[in-house]
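User: Good morning. I'm curious how 5-O-phosphono-beta-D-ribofuranosylamine would be positioned relative to this chain. Could you predict the structure with it bound?
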Amino acid sequence: MDYLISPSLPADKLALNHTIKLGVMASGSGSNFEAIAQAINKGELNAKIEVLIYNNPSAKVKEKADRLNIPSILLNHRNYSHREALDQAIVEVFKVNKVEWVVMAGWMRIITDVLLNAFPHRVINIHPSLLPSFKGINAIEKALKSQVKITGCTVHLVDLEVDSGPILVQAAVPILPDDTAETLHHRIQIQEHRIITQGIALAALKS
Ligand code: GRF
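Assistant: Good morning! Here's the predicted structure, ligand included:
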């Protein structure tokens, strides 16, 4: 088996009875952002991405949002003197857009209680390891270095501690003998794209 997903809930068990409004935050290529948008377009997730916030002017996620006709706003962290000020600007954008759930889909900044207090128990993150192992940056390199044989990815609710908070869904990915960070990240991302939408649906169902 290439991967193991938990919990393996059938799609009908993840059906939401109203269209949830998402605000997505991303810093990089945006493949998870795209996976969410595609799941919505295919009718697999009853949601709408109201707005994307990205913090890096050259982030590829912006092009994906344009292609998908999803509004996007650049909030460049370099323009804010402290983390709370950036988070306050994020909250304002999300509130104006009536966002109900926040998804950090590769957001490479530490967030503060300004964001968490505005969306209590409604901020979701995806991380490329089986938490609580390998928190923080370079999770894939850390897994390779540690010589574990299985790693994976985790969708969880966010709290103030980095890569902490209640776990919603995980997928396990075996580490192959000749894996590099790139090959392993590629296989982990295939699973991320499956569990990110499941995690969002589970969080909304539990709330
Ligand atoms: C993902 O691997 C995610 O787990 C991590 O950042 C990466 C973002 O990838 N937090 P992408 O921008 O969604 O392709």
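Residues 32 and 193 are 6 Å apart (CA to CA). The two ends are 33 Å apart (CA to CA).
Let me know if you'd like a different ligand tried.
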